[in-house]
Amino acid sequence: MRFRRKPNPNRNHPQYCPYCAGENLFPDEETEFAWACKECARVFSVMFHGQDDSEHQPAQSLSTNDALRASLARKGELPGGGK
Ligand SMILES: [Zn+2]
């Protein structure tokens, strides 16, 4: 599963200025992703592109029906079959 997507300017806004750590940030008209720091007068952009795939993927879990069927089969109690 890929978690990369087109950056969305309405998400993941910065809490602190990366230059002075100021918290007085406002959206700037430079780009949709630009933020202006009112403490150091810098304008910067922040974009979130998503996540890379992890190296190890967990095994797909069984559906409830398949898990029940596997459990009953382990205990020798399959419905409608045997005895
Ligand atoms: Zn700043």
> How much strand?
5-15%
Low-pLDDT stretches are none
Broad structural category: alpha+beta
Q: Level of helix content?
A: 10-25%
Beta strand count: 3
* CATH secondary-structure class of the domain at 11-51: Mainly Beta
CATH topology of the domain at 11-51, what is it called? N-terminal domain of TfIIb
Bound compounds, please?
zinc ion
Secondary-structure element series: EEEH
Outline of the structure:
The chain has 83 residues and is an alpha+beta fold. Helices cover 13% and strands 12% of the residues. It is rod-shaped.
Secondary structure blueprint with pairings:
Elements: E1 25-27, E2 34-37, E3 43-45, H1 64-74
Antiparallel strand pairs: 1-2, 2-3
Bound molecules: zinc ion.
Report on the architecture of this protein.
The protein has a domain at 11-51: N-terminal domain of TfIIb (Single Sheet). The protein contains one helix and three strands. The chain has one helix at residues 64-74, and strands at 25-27, 34-37, 43-45. It has a three-stranded antiparallel β-sheet with strand order 1-2-3, with no helix packed on it. It is rod-shaped, with a radius of gyration of 26 Å. It starts with 24 loop residues before the first strand and ends in a 9-residue tail after the last helix. Bound molecules: zinc ion (ZN).
List keywords for this structure.
12% strand; binds zinc ion; 83 residues; 3-stranded antiparallel sheet; 1 helix; alpha+beta; N-terminal domain of TfIIb; single chain; rod-shaped
